[in-house]
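Structure tokens please, single chain.
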Amino acid sequence: MLTNLIIFCIICFANALYIIGFNRATYFEWMNPTISYNKNNDEIDEDSKMVLWKLRYWSEKTIGEFWSKPLMTCPTCMASVHGFIPFLITYMSVYTLSPMVVIYWLFYTLTLAGLATLLNK
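Here you go.
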């Protein structure tokens, strides 16, 4: 049981660091953030562009600002999407498919969201 808790902490911490890193790698700033419609590439602050800024730009233009939050713009929200695969890889190999896995996944996601939020601040 203690081994599972240690694995949980390590995976959760590593996943939170990945989320923060991915969020920062896709970062850029709009020149005028109050106008949310018809934004184009000319309105991006050139000094704020990070290495994967085009991915976030595409996401915001294609699926919108709200749905981009769990993908790359909000570290707290990103825990729900970016935490699913590490949880499956780690815990599905240990536990069989049962209703308790859903509770473990919920606890993992909430813990990951809190940890990513703390690390982001």
